[in-house]
Design brief:
Layout lengths: L5 E4 L11 H11 L3 E7 L17 H14 L4 E9 L5 H8 L6 E5 L2 E3 L2 E2 L14 H18 L4 E2 L17 H14 L2 E5 L14 H10 L3 E4 L12 H10 L4 E6 L2 E6 L1
């Protein structure tokens, strides 16, 4: 049994994280990890799209920083990736990004349920109070299902991110999650266990246990990620995540190299 790779790490280029990749790598070595992956927020064609991602002209520098970390920590497997926003109509932009560098994987995430509302943004928390929670969750899961079905991603990130601020629908959303997970199974897309939820208002790993249990039942593979925005968060609560995964029947996770998968016992 080995510690699963932490595949969800950010850098200062996203404008809301600290610590260079080589500092994360040093932390990973100290903690006994043998593999990590950087997946900072993808740039958009317009740099003013929002204020929490790298600029397009910084993409090559991002790759250089990850390459530097590899050179300075040769005993550690360091994967090069992006966390890529899925927005309907931007599929060609995602393909454009995919062709620019030899990525190991893409994490597809849904943050926006409309052109101007990123539902996990604390600056826009008030918008939740003007909307029906079920409708927000429905829109979120509709886009998540489209992301899973698209074939553009190896992994889907924080699959119940809509719970971050504890706005829960009264209606049952399990059928919507089943539809999403069936799409992931059909396309061969993994979901991540993202421990950042334990550090948010919801105080719960993404996704919640019932969703993960359904994913296990359907045969959807998993990866692990801390969603670290500082080196000290790398690997945070991985024991809890591993215990959760094993409690619903998982014994293997996926690792990726140049967008090719292999299974790994954890």
């Amino acid at each position: 049994m080995s510690t699963p790779a932490d595949y969800h790490l950010h850098t200062p280029l996203c404008r809301h994280a600290t610590g260079l990749p080589t500092e994360y790598a040093a932390r990973a070595v100290a903690l006994g990890f043998d593999e990590i992956g950087f997946s900072d927020h993808n740039p958009m064609a317009r740099d003013d799209f929002d204020d929490w991602r790298m600029r397009l002209d910084q993409l090559d520098h991002y790759v250089e920083l990850v390459t530097q970390a590899r050179q300075e920590h040769p005993t550690l497997q360091i994967k090069l990736a992006l966390e890529v926003d899925y927005l309907p109509g931007y599929e060609d932009w995602i393909r454009d990004l995919a062709a620019r560098h030899p990525w190991d994987y893409f994490i597809g995430s849904v943050h926006y349920v409309s052109d101007d509302w990123d539902i996990d943004n604390p600056k826009k928390l008030a918008a939740w109070r003007t909307r029906d929670a079920f409708e927000v969750w429905r829109l979120y899961l509709e886009r998540l299902t489209q992301a899973a079905a698209s074939g553009l991603f190896e992994i889907i990130g924080h699959a119940d991110l809509a719970k971050k601020f504890r706005f829960y629908p009264q209606q049952d959303v399990q059928p919507l999650f089943r539809r999403f997970l069936e799409a992931a199974r059909k396309s061969g897309t993994a979901i991540e266990l993202n421990t950042a939820g334990l550090r948010k208002d919801c105080r719960e790993i993404y996704p919640a246990r019932p969703i993960l249990a359904l994913a296990s039942e359907l045969g959807v593979p998993i990866t692990f990620g801390s969603d670290a925005h500082a080196p000290e968060e790398l690997g945070a609560d991985f024991e809890s995540a591993r215990a959760l995964a094993r409690s619903v029947g998982y014994g293997h996770c996926l690792r990726f190299t140049r967008r090719q998968r292999e299974r790994r016992v954890f």
